[in-house]
Amino acid sequence: MADEQQQPVFNIEKIYVKDLSLEVPNAPAIYLDRTQPEVNVELSTGANAIENGFFEVTLKCTVTAKASENTMFLVEVAQAGIFQLRNIPEAELEPVLMIGCANILFPYAREAISDAVTRAGFQPVLLNPVNFEGMYQARLQQQQAEASPIIQ
What we know:
The chain is α+β, with helices and mostly antiparallel strands and 152 residues long. 34% of the residues lie in helices and 39% in strands. It has one domain: Bacterial Protein-export protein SecB. It is built from 3 helices and 4 strands. The longest helix is centred in the last third of the chain and has 30 residues, at 90-119. It is elongated.
């Protein structure tokens, strides 16, 4: 019985859109612009402990499309999930949240963005797969670099 209580637990409790915003600031004129847009994508992840063993992980994604210096659209989504994690070593908790949970949330964020952009009258934006492990490692390196003394 004690062995069962020590087994790692990972459950998805809920996945939801926490925030969704769409702007088409130059409508209706922007719909007549046939210029191929330049699309910029920004991603970030965050996690908060809710209560003992429950965490909210949020994947924020901002997509901006510009044509001839005019913004065609700007869509932002905060895709979130509540995850139950128990009996996971402290050193492994952050990577599970920032990599594993972000990988679970990404397809939902991708769909929300594509749907919003299509409903706004544009061609769908299909986000490329993301290496959340690489993002996590880069953020760790940046934090370590900022924590290291400037003068040695």
